[in-house]
């Protein structure tokens, strides 16, 4: 396990923010730990956060990745994917991600994916345009330069010329039809569809119990990757 999780509420002035994230590291736990400590601070310190949160999130992601690359001597050569959710006053949900951890919302029983799975095969053209390549050798999983099985990530200085850290950002308004939000690393999504995950926990009132149910189910289905899960109920 190289995952780190954030799930907290905080008050900023008259506003309430829900901050949720899963950072799935590779090669070490150092960079996901760094993200846990710094990413949200960098986002919230952007002066336009309250006016244009989507732009602030993109800037915060960019600044954090630059910091990680500049500190590569101390932080090492590894990297991390990320999926983050910021809930503003219980009404506006802003999702961002790099990599293949995923955010799924449930409205009226229907699962809706809010993040983008950044797979090397789907971003092959942009990787090649940067001078890299996508290969299934060694192994049977597509990898950037034959090494990394995601097309976007924080860190990974040795691959950065061919690897993006630009997040996809989605805004969702919370209404009376919104039931729950799931954030999870790919160890869950490799063995469960979005709708299966939603169906499994729709009737579970306690968010912690719902998250544990999903992680236990992923283990039961023989998932062999990191499994972290956050459930937010509305």
Automatic annotation (TrEMBL):
Recorded family membership:
Belongs to the PP2C family.
Segments spanning the bilayer are none
SMART domains on file: PP2Cc
Top enzyme category: hydrolase
Keywords attached to this Swiss-Prot or TrEMBL record, sorted alphabetically, are: Hydrolase, Magnesium, Manganese, Metal-binding, Protein phosphatase
PANTHER family (alphabetical): PROTEIN PHOSPHATASE (PTHR47992)
Q: Sorted alphabetically, which CDD domains does this protein's record hold?
A: PP2Cc
Top-level taxon: Eukaryota
MF annotations from Gene Ontology: metal ion binding; protein serine/threonine phosphatase activity
Q: What is the name attached to this protein's record?
A: protein-serine/threonine phosphatase
> What taxonomic classification does the UniProt entry list for its organism?
Eukaryota, Viridiplantae, Streptophyta, Embryophyta, Tracheophyta
For the PPM-type phosphatase domain, which residue ranges apply? 1-234
Q: By its UniProt entry, which SUPFAM superfamilies does this protein fall under? A: PP2C-like (SSF81606)
Name the InterPro entries on file.
Answer: PP2C, PPM-type-like_dom_sf, PPM-type_phosphatase-like_dom
Catalyzed reactions per annotation:
O-phospho-L-seryl-[protein] + H2O = L-seryl-[protein] + phosphate; O-phospho-L-threonyl-[protein] + H2O = L-threonyl-[protein] + phosphate
Give the cofactors, semicolon-separated: Mn(2+); Mg(2+)
Q: What is its EC number?
A: 3.1.3.16
